[in-house]
Design brief:
The protein is 83% helix and 0% strand. By secondary structure, it is mainly alpha-helical. It is built from 19 helices and no strands. The radius of gyration is 22 Å and the shape is globular. It has one domain.
């Protein structure tokens, strides 16, 4: 399967998941709004997801996939299957122990995770209760991440990319079906998270079995390969999860700003996560096993080509997305969320945060594209050093900006620090001779930027002419659909005419094997 087709597979399923996620968030906004109850649920939801990204997706994508790819290429499927089984047993043991500890110490953990909640005892107690319901999700979803790594290494992307769809279906179902039976809608959502973890685990077990790579349970056993995995996993937890750690810091400090600040940043980040997930995570997911296996092959130079194409595709899709989100931040939030308990003031606060988050979108995606260049070469130390530096800069900027700009200062600090992270990753890869921009990339990036700016200017003037925040809901939806369609058309035409991309070349690339 070609790199572009792999990215398209992951992107397609991720897009479905994100659209369902929007439907979920629209329902949450209407029922919970952006006040104390919403803040409590979002913290309870982020808590296990932070550890999921660190213990599951971040750590295993960084450490497990290259080792598994090496076993498949050099030692055969039987050895690889045994390694995966041992890794699974150790992962379940570690995450199960962590879940038990956090469940016991949850009130103290909440003082760290959301210190501002302590000023409101009722809100604090609700956050603790909801987090205790959601946190077991970590153990199941970490196992799901490992099985996803197995399937991705086998170039079977559909099941792993489709797993998040289950989460959104469970949350929507919980909100509709469990709310009448629970104390609050937030409780229903928390139980939906727990149920989703079990459902995703079962589905990935079935997918691995169908792929001929059933992972059999065995008692935990530490051998040299597991020791090596653990050694590489520790820096990978931070190196690949730096974005999530930045969000953790944002949440902690946002809880100190005002009631609703956590929710404003959450809703803005959810919209920002659509292109990040559909593009960035998709490219990173497809690129890591591709680079890992290509570097194990006869001609490692092929990996350089793949890295360049990953950057090109990332910029081709994220630069226009960033410009569009920046220009249309408030109208997008108005259409998606302004109803029920979510009013005009919440729209304004969330929309401004989205505009600032949009500035950092290309960098967030580039981090996902550049990090596999280190992990595929079994280097997890360099990204952790860069990640720590970026986090320190993020904290310093938040402290400097938050007193004056509130939650917008937090968004600005996050966007700035992620650009520093991406720039450092690219520079060090280039310094080590592992990243050299080819002529095609050098020629196309300025043209992609030009096409994005032209699209942004067209959207800006059209919004100024047509948009009305207080128009009928159906009118706003139709207007937004027209703006999005028009923006896509303008960008597609200008990109083709300027030479930023070539539709005929893309069609050829879709048919090309991953050894091209």
């Amino acid at each position: 399967m070609s790199l572009v087709r792999s990215i398209a597979t992951v992107s397609g399923f991720t897009l479905i998941s994100r659209l369902l996620g929007f439907a979920r968030d629209i329902m949450i906004a209407g029922m919970l709004g952006a006040g104390g109850m919403a803040d409590a649920f979002f913290v309870a939801f982020k808590f296990p997801n932070l550890f999921r990204r660190l213990f599951g997706e971040g750590a295993f994508n960084a450490a497990f996939v290259p080792l598994l790819a090496g076993d498949i290429e050099k030692r055969g499927l039987d050895v690889a299957r045994e390694f995966a089984a041992r890794a699974m047993s150790m992962l379940i043991l570690i995450t199960g122990f962590l879940v038990a500890i956090i469940e016991i110490t949850m009130p103290w953990a909440m003082h760290v995770f959301a210190p501002g909640f302590a000023e409101d005892p009722e809100k604090f107690a609700l956050a603790v209760e909801l987090s205790r319901i959601t946190f077991p999700y970590l153990a199941f979803i970490s196992a799901v991440a490992l099985m996803s790594g197995v399937l991705n290494t086998l170039h079977r992307y559909a099941a792993a990319a489709g797993a998040p769809i289950i989460l959104n279906i469970c949350l929507i179902g919980a909100l509709l079906g469990l709310t009448p039976m629970t104390e609050t809608p937030a409780h229903a959502l928390a139980w939906g998270v727990a149920i989703a973890g079990i459902a995703q685990f079962v589905c990935l077990v079935i997918a691995c079995k169908r792929a001929g790579f059933a992972i059999k349970w065995q008692l935990p056993k530490i051998d040299d390969r597991i020791k090596l995995l653990g050694k590489r996993m520790i820096p990978g937890m931070i190196g690949a999860g730096v974005y999530q750690l930045n969000l953790l810091i944002d949440t902690m400090l946002a809880s100190l700003v005002s009631d609703g600040a956590v929710s404003w940043l959450y809703y803005a980040d959810r919209v920002h996560q659509l292109p990040l997930g559909v593009i960035g995570i998709a490219i990173g997911t497809a690129l890591l096993p591709t680079l890992s296996r290509q570097l194990q092959g006869a001609d490692p130079k092929i990996a350089m080509y793949s890295q360049n194409r990953g950057i090109e595709i990332a910029l081709l899709l994220t630069l226009p997305s960033a410009v569009a989100l920046g220009v249309m931040g408030i109208p997008i939030i108005n259409v998606l969320f302004e109803r029920g308990a979510f009013g005009a003031s919440e729209t304004l606060m969330t929309g401004m945060a989205l505009t600032i988050f949009a500035f950092g979108l290309p960098a967030s995606v580039l981090v996902k594209v550049l990090a596999p260049g280190f992990f595929a070469r079994e280097d997890t130390k360099t990204p952790i050093r860069i990640g720590i530096s970026a986090m320190v800069i993020n904290i310093v900027l938040i402290i400097a900006l938050m007193p004056t700009f509130g939650h917008l200062g937090i968004a600005a600090a996050t966007s700035t620090s992620v650009w520093i992270n991406a720039g450092a990753l690219g520079w060090i890869l280039h310094k080590h001779g592992d990243l050299a921009f080819d002529d095609r990339l050098k020629r196309r990036v300025p043209r992609i930027l030009l096409s994005s700016v032209l699209m942004g200017l067209a959207l800006w003037f059209t919004i100024d002419w047509l948009w009305q925040n207080d128009a009928l809901s159906i009118t706003r939806v139709i207007t937004m659909a027209g703006l999005v369609s028009g923006g896509l058309l303008i960008y597609a035409v200008t990109a083709q005419l300027s030479g930023a991309t070539s539709f005929s070349e893309l069609k050829t690339t879709l048919k090309r094997s991953n050894t091209a």
